[in-house]
Structure formats: C-alpha cells, structure tokens
Amino acid sequence: MSQTEYRPNQNNEVEVTEDMKKAFDKHGYIMVRNLLNSQELEKLKMSLDENETISENSHKVDDGEKRFACLTVWSHPGDDVTGMISRSEKVAGTCEQLLEGEVYHYHSKLMMKVAKVGGRWAWHQDYGYWYGNTPLFPDMMTVFIAVDGCHQGNGCLEILDGSHKCGRIEHNFVGQLMGADMDRVNMIEKRCPKKFVEMNPGDGLFFHCNLLHYSGPNLSEERRWAFLIAYNKASNDPVEEHHHPKYTPLHKVPNSAILNCEVLWDTNGKSILTKEKRQQSKLAEINVKN
User: Fold this and answer.
1) For 134, phi and psi rounded to 5 degrees?
2) Which domain holds residue 257?
3) Distances in Å between the alpha carbon of 96 and those of 13, 90, 231, 234, 266?
4) Domain of 78: which CATH number?
5) pTM flag (> 0.90)
6) CB 69 within 8 A of CB 111
7) Residue 102 burial by Cβ neighbours in a 10 Å radius (0-12, 13-18, 19+)
8) Which three-class secondary structure state does DSSP give residue 244?
9) Which residues constitute the signal peptide according to the record (predicted)?
10) Which of 59, 133, 250, 266 shows the smallest number of beta carbons within 10 Å?
11) pLDDT string in tens for the chain (290-residue length)
12) Which helix (H) or strand (E) holds 56?
C-alpha cells in the first residue's frame, strides 16, 4: 500500500498534495499513518474505555456464523474528544479536500469486535447502505481510525482496490447482514486486486463511499475497536428526512483542539442512536453497518 500511504507533517497537519488527491481518485482510499499521535490516541481511548453510554447503546449484529459485532452510533460530533477529532482540520479538512467541497458530519460510530467471537462484515459499499437515505450522489466518504491494532488475525478491513469506479452495486440482506451482490463482487475482484488493510493504533484510512470492503471475524485473543466517521458533501443534502442528519454546518477546529479538549465524553448534542430509535427506523439496519 506504499503508493497510497502518507503521514502528518512535523506540525501534526495532513497536507493534501496533488499526488495524494490522485491516489484517492485512482484507488478509492488513502492511508494516513499516525493520523492520531500517541497522546491523541491515548485521549481517545480514555474517552471510550469503560464508557457506559457506549455499552448501553451498543447494537449487536449476528454474522450468521455464531459470532457477532457490536457498534454504537451517533449523528452529531459534539464538543468532546471524539467530536474534536471528527471536526479537526486533519480529519474533516482532509475529507473536504479529497471530495473537493464542504462536508458535514453524517454520523460516527465505534465498531467493536470482541476477542474470539467478533463477527465478520459482508462485502459492501457504504453508499450501498446510504443510498436509501436519498443522498443522490456518491459524494460521501468514511475515515476509519484504528483504536486497536488491525491485522488479519483480528478481522482487519479487506478492500478491492479501485472498485469505487464500478458504481453502486446492488445490496441485499443475508440474515442480519446486508451485503453487495456476490456474483458482481467476484467479477470485480478479477479486475480490482484485494488488499488486506493492516493498521497500527492511530492510523487512519480515508475511503470513498463506493469502495468495496469486508472484514473477517476476530479469531484472536485481543479486541478490535475502530472509530469511524462518515461525511457527506454539503451539496449532497439528502432529499428525504431519515435518522442520520441532513446538512448541518460542521464547525471545524484546529488539530490542537484534540489535546486541549477537557471533556472526554459528553452525550449532549451527539444524538446517540439508541435502541428505541433503531426500533423506530426501518432503515437503521441498513445504514449503521460498516
């Protein structure tokens, strides 16, 4: 993945160069190693570990193979540590440059695969899920930040390089998992090489909403947590109301705000997707998976 890998500069900034933009457009993703430095990562972990709100609102999804993954989702960034990360220039600002326009926070989630029984996610595109929410264009992306190390043994992401150029693939439910049509995925894999995305804690993968990706089960003795932030382009405001927000101005902050933030976790303004809200939304199963 060397031709798609970058690092923040000495000032802890992500410089979106012409080569980086070309790599994103060609491959459908870029990797920023050490997107969060060690201090920022430690602060993120402090905000998430032993967090009762996250555990109480965690949604368990059975993968059909006697394993499960858990996730907690919220709609707005808020003013705590996770909010500062999702509003920071090196995260949100980078997305704006990659998508070539203003973005807003579509939702965030903590993805949790526990040791031994953490379940897989089927091959899918994020836009395959979000399409039903009526953002009419695939001007959307996700930033996957590794909280723990991600490797083949604990279910790291697998991607089909360049598959975002294939357009939206039909998605269907198989049990509780919704995935892309596998006949089509198998065809695409012959043209777009599969790559395992192994990440160290603090690394960030920026990827296009049509990039096909999958993650296997966690068969290891260690957990695999990841913090994911989804963005939509401001010009791509969904036509219809749904449980994720329509265009809401994102007030970006300097990268220094992450370490300067004195609030580890605050649910005020985040709009957690609670169990009750999920039950009220017929589309929730489709839209929170990743």
Assistant:
1) 70, 30
2) 2-287
3) 14, 10, 9, 10, 26
4) 2.60.120.620
5) yes
6) yes
7) middle
8) coil
9) none
10) 266
11) 458 999 999 999 999 999 999 999 999 999 999 999 999 999 999 999 999 999 999 988 877 778 888 899 999 999 999 999 999 999 999 999 999 999 999 999 999 999 888 878 889 999 999 999 999 999 999 999 999 999 999 999 999 999 999 999 999 876 667 888 999 999 999 999 999 999 999 999 999 999 999 998 899 999 999 999 999 999 999 999 988 999 999 999 999 999 999 999 999 999 998 866 665 554 444 444 44
12) helix 52-56
Candidates 246, 209, 231; CA nearest to 133 is 246
Question: Which residue in this structure is represented by tokens 């060609």?
Answer: 26
Between CA 228 and CA 222 the distance in angstroms is 19
Distance CA 84, CA 253 (A): 7
Residues 85 and 40: beta-carbon distance below 8 Å: yes
Using CA atoms, how far residue 144 sits from 48, 86, 186, 264, 282, in Å, is: 16, 11, 24, 20, 26
How many distinct structural domains can be found in the chain? 1
Comparing CA positions, the residue from 251, 263, 289 lying closest to residue 105 is: 251
User: Residues with Cβ < 8 Å from 220, sequence gap 6 or more?
Assistant: 115, 116, 153, 154
Length of the chain, in residues: 290
For residue 219, is it left (φ>0), alpha (ψ between -120 and 50) or beta?
Answer: alpha
